Amino acid sequence: MKLQLALDDISLKDALDLGEKVKNYIDIFEMGSPFIIENGSLAIKEFKRRFPEKKILADTKIVDAGSYEAGLAFKAGADYCTVIGLTDILTIKECLKAARKYNKSIFVDTINIENLNKRIPELEAAGVDHISVHVGVDEQAVGKTPIDALRQVKSLSNNSILSVAGGIKADTVDLYKKSGADIVIVGGGINHAKNSVLAAKKLAEKIND
Ligand SMILES: O=C([C@H](O)CO)[C@H](O)[C@H](O)COP(=O)(O)O
């Protein structure tokens, strides 16, 4: 299992400094949605320049203009970007077209998909092979976690690479590992920890255990 660090509510400078300190524990640096709103494509470019050996994911959460928006992320240096799974299937297909053009990949975010039983087969039939099981921060605030959705998507998916996000920390990561995630995404669990470097180290140790 790989570890993806989501950089959301942090300045570009602090994120680059943190990246330097935790890079040995992290496989994928995620340019979070708020981070992209604040810094634009510059964040993607800077991270790729400073950490060329790491994968960079742009959490673009695309809902329209799939090919154009995904193309912007890939041209800036992202290896992956995200599209919202409940948007129109045409947009998903346009994102996949851009991914093929740039030889990169698209993660489809499951946030707020009500009927996963119906949607996951539709997405995979359209060519999706990377799925990000996600419970957002607002739903986390009322106690939701992504564990049930991960188990459900794992049983429905044919062969997609699965990442999982939603309030995961060092003391809960084992559950997600056991439930078949290929990538665990951690934002607050590292960024908001008392000691971010120690939190990243603990997560990496548990993942590689
Ligand atoms: O995608 C995210 C969220 O929608 C804010 O943009 C987060 O990056 C993702 O949820 C991971 O962060 P944590 O839930 O804090 O681990």
From TrEMBL:
Keywords: Carbohydrate metabolism, Lyase, One-carbon metabolism. GO terms for biological process: 'de novo' pyrimidine nucleobase biosynthetic process; L-ascorbic acid catabolic process; one-carbon metabolic process. Residues 2-203 form the Orotidine 5'-phosphate decarboxylase domain. Its EC number is 4.1.2.43. Gene3D superfamilies: Aldolase class I. SMART domains: OMPdecase. It catalyses: D-ribulose 5-phosphate + formaldehyde = D-arabino-hex-3-ulose 6-phosphate. Pathway: One-carbon metabolism; formaldehyde assimilation via RuMP pathway; D-fructose 6-phosphate from D-ribulose 5-phosphate and formaldehyde: step 1/2. One of its GO terms (molecular function) is hexulose-6-phosphate synthase activity. Belongs to the HPS/KGPDC family. HPS subfamily. This is 3-hexulose-6-phosphate synthase.
